[in-house]
What we know:
It contains ten helices and twelve strands. With about 400 residues, it is of the alpha+beta class. It has two domains: about 1-165; about 190-405, paralog of FGE (formylglycine-generating enzyme). Helix 1 (about 15-30) packs parallel to helix 6, helix 3 (about 50-70) runs parallel beside helix 5 and helix 3 (about 50-70) packs antiparallel against helix 6 (about 130-165). About 40% of the residues are buried. Fe (ii) ion (FE2) binds next to helix 6. The site of fe (ii) ion (FE2) has 4 residues, from helix 6.
Amino acid sequence: MQELNVAAQPTFEHGLMRAYRIVRAETERRATRLSPEDQVVQSMPDASPIKWHRAHTTWFFEKFVLEPHDPAYRPYDERFAFLFNSYYVAAGPRHARPQRGLVTRPDAAEVAAYRRHVDAAMETLMADADARTLSDLLPVVEIGLNHEQQHQELMLTDILHAFAQNPTAPAYDPGWRWPATGSERLAGGDAVLPEGIHVIGHQDDGFCYDNEAPAHRALVGPVSLSRDLVTNGEWLEFMADGGYANPLLWLSDGWATVQADGWTAPGYWREIDGQWHVMTLGGRRPVEPALPVCHVSYYEADAFARWAGRHLPSEQEWEVAARGGHLRDAFGIVWQWTRSAYSPYPGYRPVPGALGEYNGKFMVNQMVLRGSSLATPAGHARVTYRNFFYPASRWQFTGLRLAAVPS
Ligand SMILES: [Fe+2]
């Protein structure tokens, strides 16, 4: 998905206004390939309609920037706050998530008009702000832009899920190709991390979410991490060896999910005339053994690691190895499951107010993923980033690399 990563990095040194325009334009660019009908569908409760993503990211600026900072601002439509609030209880009542696909009005054209209305108000606010006001605006606009980038990734994962339900397996982009993997700079095999105390978490002046802080010391290693991601070819070996049929490889909840959902292969895989195929952004394609495996859940990743006689790295192990430049394809291909439960770092404090709901209230029952994926927009990834999903989720671009205790 090289094409999706060509937008200039929205670094804030180049000005808030420029960053705002770049990020907002990228959302619309991703939506351009989709018809109004594509944009209304919600294929499961976890996924949202494209139109909803476009409107919700806009409501975020209306609610958290324009409403508190621009006394003259008038909402585009008072009813949109109910329709397009996601999970911010402190920001008022909201439409039920599983029902988002039933909202045919406002239509896609009106959502585009809503975006233009808010963009005009935002640009006027930023252009007219004096230095002091701008320093008040910057942190919340920065969160708003990073929030919108997260939704840009979800736009692709959610439309892929919708298209995967269509018997004709439509392509989001017929010319789509897997991003190039590997690097000649590094040999394969394992990177060994000796035992040591390392600083984990966000340490520079750039943006981070509150869940990446505070930086703290942690004992890491000894551990060896695979330099490479697990491939489709390796996954086919796991399948051929009865991996999905052997309860001894699975966590109890994972085995229950395999049974209940009838899993025999990664998400979006389908066997056609003896050949495995996978649904991609370019439509349904044959599974290529050399490519990294994608659309596996935490349960599957954990079972595969057990089958391989290894385990998943902790998020601290991953961060230390990635910071040291030891991992190939750490970013831009698939998010990598870690065996770390998503929980607060020592000393964690959520940001005050409604935006404190952004991360902190989800710190239970989910697992951390590190790196970034082919759908992550340019400039959004960093080595301390903590993504998180439920262990059965597999509609994201998720894969794995393995770890072991060095012998
Ligand atoms: Fe959101």
